[in-house]
Amino acid sequence: MRLNWWRTGSGAARGRLRLPISTGSAVVAAAGRAWRGSQERARRDARRRRARAAAQDPARAQRFLSETAVALEGHIVAASAATSDENQALAVQNITALLAATHGSRSDLARLREAFDHGRSADFDLSHDLGLVREITVRYSSPELRDHLYSSALGAAWHGGSVEPSQRVILDDVAQILGIERRKAARADSHMRRAHSLEATGEAATSEQRLAGARIVLGIEPFDSPGAIDERYRRRTEDLERLLRLGLPKEFRDEALRSLQQLREARTVIRHAGH
Predict the structure, then answer these.
(1) Is pLDDT at 13 greater than 50 in this prediction?
(2) Which of 98, 179, 180, 225 is the most exposed place for a label (fewest CB within 10 A)?
């Protein structure tokens, strides 16, 4: 069977060009890929312009940072062999934490969901977006935000209990672009490895290991004062309780409740340790 791809006249004598149907299909497919590629480039360019403009305004810069954090997690998830249900669970967990930390609203939820999906797509430009994050943190003298972003990416990579080689490549790129010291990145990875090793083996944690895990949950350091620990716990608790009053979808309310319970358990462990 053949396809009349181009016709000049009404017969072979008048010059009819015929191509095999397989060739015609290949041409159509190639044209479709070219069109999709041009659309992706147009979207990427538009997103870059918006991101560049956002860097000039503190409020818009904050939005860009939160969207990039979620998009980066989506990008790392896309490099894993996790199931769609596992990916959804990670998205809910991290978006809930970010909404709480940034005092987000219901409208922010839709924006962050879109950012997570963007990170999983071919449109996501890791080098450009993280380069702009670094520029923003320098502009507003907030280098600690780079550490938070790397920790968030590391947590997403370890979500399944281990880091896959493709995810390790992304983490190395993230650390390099953000300017995270190798020693600091290795220490953060070591903490995650120990925590997941205990969980995987079912080994009973020692008091020291429980204390280390509680510090990770609360986001504190061993040298923090009791007053600083109490303040951190109070703010984290209030942020999550505020989320519960927003009327979010059930999976996000459930995640906020789970996080509150984790915080309370972590605070109990730290109090028993005398802090």
Answers:
(1) no
(2) 225
Say how far apart CA 232 and CA 270 lie, in whole Å.
Answer: 13
pLDDT at 79 over 70: yes
Question: Between the CA of residue 130 and those of 90, 144, 182, 254, what are the distances in Å?
Answer: 21, 14, 17, 31
**Tokens for 151?**
């920790």
Letter string b/e over residues 173-184, b meaning 16 or more CB atoms within 10 A of that residue's CB:
ebbebbebeeee
Task: Give the residue-averaged pLDDT of 203-232.
Answer: 81
Residue 176 half-sphere exposure toward CB, CA atoms < 13 A? 9
Cβ–Cβ under 8 Å, residues 64 and 54:
yes
| pTM of the shown model | 0.71
* DSSP 8-state symbol, 245: T
Chain segment 16-72, per-residue pLDDT in tens? 444 454 455 555 566 666 655 666 666 666 666 766 676 678 888 888 899 999 999
b/e per residue, 186-213, with b = 16+ CB within 10 A?
eebbebbeebbebeeeeeeeeeeebbbb
Q: How long is the chain? A: 275
21: three-class secondary structure by DSSP: helix
Cβ contact 154:168 at 8 Å: no
Rounded distance between C-alpha atoms, residue 127 and residue 189, angstroms: 22
Residues 6+ apart with CB under 8 A from 266: 213, 214, 215, 217, 218
Residue 92 and residue 250 in contact, taking contact as beta carbons nearer than 8 Å: no
Helix axes 207-218, 182-201, angle to 10 degrees: 120
Phi, psi of 64 (to 5 degrees): -65, -40
pLDDT given at position 199: 56
CA distance 14 to 214: 83
